[in-house]
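Notes to self after the Tuesday call (sharing in case useful).
The group wants a holo model before anyone commits to mutagenesis around the pocket. I volunteered. Ligand is FE2/S2 (inorganic) cluster. Logging inputs and output together so the record is complete.
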Amino acid sequence: MSGPALAFHLNGKPVVTATVPTRRLSDLLREDLGQTGTKVGCDAGDCGACTVLLDGAAVCACMVPAGQVSGRHVETVEGLANGNGAGDDAELSGLQASFLRHDAAQCGICTPGMLMAAAALLRSKPKPTAEEVEQALAGVLCRCTGYRKIIDAVCDAWRGPENTNGQPGDGPVGGPTSGPVSGTAIGARLQRVDGVPKVDGSSRFGADSRSGDTLVVLPVRSPHHSADFDFGDLEAWKDATDGVAAIFTAADIPGRNCFGVIPPFADQPALAVGRARFRGEAVALVAVEAECVHAIDLAGFPVVWRENQALLGVAAAKADGAPLVHEARAGNFLTEGLVRQGDIDAAFADAAFTVSGRVQTGFIEHAYIEPEAGDAWMDGDVLVIRACTQAPVMDRDDTAAILGLAQDKVRIIPAATGGGFGSKLDVSLQPLLGLVTLRTGRPSRMVYTRSDSMASTTKRHPASIEARFAADAEGRVIAMDFAGDFDTGAYASWGPTVANRVPVHATGPYRTGAMRAVGRAIHTNGPPSGAFRGFGVPQAAIAQETLYDKLADAAGLDRLAFRIRNAYVDGDRTATGQVLHGVGIRDCLEALEGHWQRARAEARAFNADKKRGIDKKRGVGVASCWYGCGNTSLPNPSTIRVGIKADGTLVLHQGATDIGQGANTVISQICADALGLPVAAFTLVGGDTHLTPDAGKTSASRQTYVTGKAAELAGKALRAAILRHANVDGEAVLSLEGGTLNVNGEGTRSIDLKSLAPDAGGFVFVAEETYDPPTAPLDENGQGKPYAVYGYGAQMVELEVDVPLGTVRLIRIVAAHDVGRAINPMLAEGQIEGGIAQGIGLAMMEEFEPGRTENLHDYLIPTIGDVPPVESILIEKPDPEGPYGAKGLGEHVLIPTAPAILNAIRDATGAEVTRLPALPHRVRAAIEAARALADAGALDPKSQTQEAQP
Ligand code: FES
Ligand code: FES
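Result:
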């Protein structure tokens, strides 16, 4: 962007450029100066991802006009490493090395901002306290880590860069090169194999790449929840607007204008046709010359809207006479899932104790720090799309169908992905980019604004749940009855999955006797509800676990002991009739016992201390989870290819997208030990749909288990092929030295790899294996084997409630999770801490309201000050099916947090918060309601009811 000359210092070097003085510094750095290490998550001063140093002080570059840096010094993440340059041989700074050592960067999109804010602190405080770090980093949001490892990393940065690769016994982790001994990868706290680009600013996210002559794609979106529309004179507007190269509407789509993650339910158009069903739905695309994009004003785009009655909330959608969101779906009913066994009426009639209640939750936004972004170009007759994603093969298939192309004419290259948590499973901008590039033949680029991202992408399903439970005189749960309505929004997305997964999990990890559980997906004019860490199970667990506390109270039992009494053990049958093996829930609950007794005693002492007055009350809460890993009763395969080339390069084709959860590292660790070569020997090839076999989508906690199992099988198959060739027994030790593969068994054989004939892929030894979990369909009563492997967990929350204000301060969380086998304990802890942070948001602050909270200052997510210290306890109860006994973890970790918080609030004050999030006014109202009930006389201790709150 031309303008007056601007001179300043960037990372110690003089820069002279020409730009408009009012332009954002972040834009200048990224677009003109190529410093894409500085990230943009909001362009509004809310997320801190763009933090840079201006004369040594941390500032949000998106809020600094470029003209203000004239004559001053700007530092970005690219300047942190000694040598001032990402991608060269610069040595990482002590701070960057510490981030790697502590696994403080998961997806990495917030990491440059975190590093720069921390760098400013460390210059004045080389050994800061945790409190000082919290204050210094308060303006930078992270959605992945839960912040605790970031705090540890900054506090530990003084150790310097020499520990980058980790020395045994010095620092908490080993690096990828510190484990040269074969067979020691599993269980090691290895640094991420892809960690360095996350801390040196060289990771290429969707918004970081572009080619020359690129068209920028801008979407025109519905401002209404429901509206019919017509376009005016598009050609005239195009001709009258400088820089507009083309306009596209649904009429330009050459294929099937419909996509969806579950093909039988696919219903969402890439561009709406005549009717927009939710606010934020795209109806047209404007392709703009890059240099003109800042001058484009879409307010004048020729579209006429006729607003319709909007259905917001399930109650409106189910009301008599409600309009239909989709003509073919009567009653706005999408689908339902059911699990039932036994005679619940007889069981409730026989019960010694019963409880019932209602719970209501709202839309939850994923709020990854990276808004959707990507670019596209033609490579011959192949359309190439590079974008953030959790599911490259699903993106390819949907995009090809929409554009009327054969699948092999679309290539998806996953960009580094700055968080997903389920929402980046559905296609977003891929077909839109594809349409522009296919129609114009030119490269295109699309970067969602924060409001684009929040308005148009999927959300966690709002839930309205009613449930009742019964127990016998000994406190054993003998019956449950559960019904949940889930607001699936305007399109199906993952609604069928939620409707089916919830009933299977509704019991929690407990023996339940007779039960009936129904999950219904209902259409509204809300944003499409999709996948979000847990697929509805977190909402169900809130109902089940809060009622469990009341049932324990009714039975006169300690709440933790009550759970242990009812917890599943090996050999138990679930409500679907499946026999369980490798069950670790009791171990998790028992691991909390000491903490529970200590915390309960401390809370009692605090509350009894008369000197403190009655304004503050402390409470302790506990809740559990279980979660089936992978698709529900559906095929779910992953394929891994691993091979050795003639020059000795060991290549792992690992198609499981790593969105920060660590799949690249964990799957490498599994494959390394199965093969018998060190992790450091592997070269990774990611989920490029033209290069790498399908490892399925990154969702449902399936990658460590399913793709990990495929990696185990592939590693073992490659090893077997090598040993066969060498005619050496199975205990042989392998080592690679350039083009020589040594096989040391009873004798030693050195294989000259160059002497072997390579296959078409260049491999002289190669193996490819597929694993598909053994599941079985559910019958009409929900009986069957929906998942091959389950994971388990339990969490305990200590908190303090300010009674007059209704505010809640978290003190500590202890989390015990059965991971089967901790492939990488450090990464597992990171998953736990990050999941807990999202659970805190669900419980205490997050509620997306279409049209009102489409930014990160009205939609609040936990900051570094909102996540208390977390103690993780890893339980290893091996699963007979999982790779080396491993189970999934990613979804599980969020599930118990919210109910444990609600149980702790009730423990402290008696308040039953049944409408989430537990905002201060709701907590306050619940406290008043509890007092009123107490004043009105004792509740029947054997039968209690909790009502949903407004
Ligand atoms: S991009 Fe600048 S604060 Fe979010
Ligand atoms: S690592 Fe912080 S947002 Fe992903």
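Two things stood out.
Residues 726 and 749 are 7 Å apart (CA to CA).
The pocket of FE2/S2 (inorganic) cluster (ligand 1) is lined by residues 40-43, 45-50, 60, 62 (CB under 6 Å).
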